[in-house]
Here is the input.
Amino acid sequence: MSVALDVFTVIAIAAGVVFFLAGTVGLLRFPDTLTRLHALTKADNLGLGLIVLGLLPQAQDWQHALKLVLTWLLVLLAGAAASQLIARVAHRAVPPG
Amino acid sequence: MMDAFNIVLAVLVLALAVWTVVARDTFTAVVGFVAYGLLLALVWVQLHGVDIALTEAALGSGLTGALLLGAAQRLRSNERPARRERPGRLTHLVAALVAGSLTAALGIAVLALPDPAPTLAHETAANMGATGVYNPLTAVLLAFRAVDTLLEATVVLFALIGIWSVAPDAAWGGRPGPRHEVDPQGPLAFLARVLAPIGIIVGVYIFWIGADLPGGKFQGAALLAAMWLLAIFAGLADTPRTSHRALRLALIAGPVIFMVVGAAGVLIAGAFLAYPDGLAKPLIVLIEWALFPSLALTLALIVAGPPARAAE
Here is the structure.
């Protein structure tokens, strides 16, 4: 059972790292602010989500597991709000068309 | 495995420090500085200095970062002409010489430390029972070296007075900063509504737990200040009139109570800031409770800046 959980942890965290890597590559390579933000949210939301998911079986007790999930939710909230704000500024700065 | 992590962390911190120093653009340098502070907090965690990690993240990186961002914003208009002025060769040489000798002196001082390094940790652990607190850092900050903490709490107050004193005459006593008009349905207002209650609970918790576990008034106060500023920037609240008597009393209450307790120590226990036997814990709690709101207000108003709108 514990081996199965460890394998699950490794797979989930590896998948999370892939999203972080993809997000970072996108941040560096994409042409404009909006697409770069799009790349960043993949790292924030999915990457961190998968890492938290992978860490859950390793938590000492349910309180620690809850803290991990809450951390992810807070990052989601802050990340989404900050992306919206940056996107608004970028959208106003560059006239559409 | 852990060694590899620490080496990567150390290299990253150094690289980011160099990048922050050589960045041409002020805003870029500030962003680098904030990231540098967060990495430094990780370093403190690795050194088991969780108290310092919290302080570094909340004050060193967060609050100072916000201050520097404000400064970068104000400097933006004359950044271009300032960059065109190239300092002369002599200035470069002197700056390099001074910075180089300071680094060398620090390096020699660190390398010259005896092994094992001198420490008061054992004395602290042996005498902690007298203070009634279980976090050795809190024991040091509020019992053994309370005078340092008193000076720290007073110096932020002086910083605020310094900031207020650059207000234009017409705005003296008025409200700091512009009135932020933000879309009440927008993302910032949403973030302020959802995050502020959580941040306030976490801030009070970090303050409360400081007696026994890593945490304390400075870190907790920085979080409360951040939540108040978030509400201000989101247009949900306004900065207070700086001439308000209740506000000014709240600002000085913490340091004043700290000084009164310290002065009472001279009469009762024979030394400034000495606690009478058995009363150490209640007095420490009193000082912490008095400083916490004063610090939160002071830190927030430092970021809010000098009064900018005339008192109505």
Observations:
- The longest helix of chain B spans residues 50-75.
- The interface with chain A takes residues 186-188, 190-191, 194-195, 198 of chain B (CB under 8 Å).
- The CA atoms of residues 176 and 304 of chain B lie 6 Å apart.
